[in-house]
Amino acid sequence: MKILAVCGMGLGTSLILRMNAEKALKQLGVEADVEVSDMGSARALAATADLVLTSEELAEQLGPVKPRVVTISNFIDPNEVVTKLKAAIG
Amino acid sequence: MSRVPRATAVVAPRPGLSALLSIKAIRIGASARDWRGAVRLAGDALVASGATAPAYTDEMIATVEELGPYIVIAPGIALAHSRPSEAVHRAGISLVVLNKPVNFGHRQNDPVRLVVGLAAPDEEGHVTALGTLAEFLADDGRRDELLRSTGPDDLLRLVEAFEGDQASQMRRSTSDGKDLVDPK
């Protein structure tokens, strides 16, 4: 599966998100690629992703997209990402 | 397990956190009136370390004006940054510990006590350093210790000690080049 981590610029928050998502997937035993994206290209990239990870605020700006959107409030807490990914795909 | 090798394993090592965090880019006990002031402190610290030109500070502020306070990535922590631009001379990280927290308007993670400034000339060169910082801050005890730093050298020592521990763990767990699991 393909997971898209979205942040405003695609190089700060989303990199941290990707790191924690990769750890979480390994822990959950799920095989997936995690890509990062800025807000500008997120809508187009989301069309081919199975899941979008982003913040609540950016999810609102992103609006409706095809895959399920999982919002994270604490980007540096690996446990939140594990819990929410598990609920979404586990 | 991912079927592709982890990116960090196939490219040249990227600079670590202490390589991007200059002592000139650390501010302890700083005061800001509002979020703009707090981001400006982080931007000024990047300028002082030689990583950016002052225009980048305005770009970081414009990012929040444009996209909102999503840069408050965890309770009490903001990651101020913008795009790669002409105002970025090289990758750099600044750390500003505020003596009084300020609100960014984030629903869950306000108020902010620590502002991280990030300057990146490309999209991936800072990934190792940023990852180490995120891991450092993910632990409440370490984060509190960082917030209690008495000066820039004190803070830098904490970061370097953590980075050293992490590197030696990494060497142990990847000593045979394949096994990523910590040996018991």
Describe this structure in words.
The complex is a heterodimer of chains A (90) and B (184). Chain A is of the alpha/beta class. Chain A has four helices and four strands, in the order E-H-E-H-E-H-E-H. Chain A has a four-stranded parallel sheet. In chain A, helix 3 links the parallel strand 3 and strand 4. In chain A, helix 1 (13-28) crosses helix 4 (78-89). Chain A is globular, with a radius of gyration of 11 Å. Chain A starts with a strand and ends with a helix. Chain B is α/β, with parallel strands linked by helices. A five-stranded mixed sheet of chain B has the order 1-4-5-3-2, sandwiched between helices. In chain B, strand 2 (72-74) and strand 3 form a beta hairpin. Chain B is globular and about 45 Å long. In chain B, 39% of the residues are buried. Residues 1-10 of chain B have low confidence and may be disordered. The interface between A and B is medium-sized, with 30 and 37 residues.
Low-confidence stretches of chain A: none
Q: Report the radius of gyration of chain A as a whole number of Å.
A: 11 Å
Distance between the termini of chain A: 12 Å
> What order do the strands of the largest sheet of chain A run in, or round the barrel if closed?
2-1-3-4
* Overall pLDDT level of chain B: 89
Task: Estimate what percentage of residues of chain B fall within beta strands.
Answer: 15-25%
- General shape of chain B: globular
Total DSSP helices of chain B: 7
The span between the termini of chain B is: 20 Å
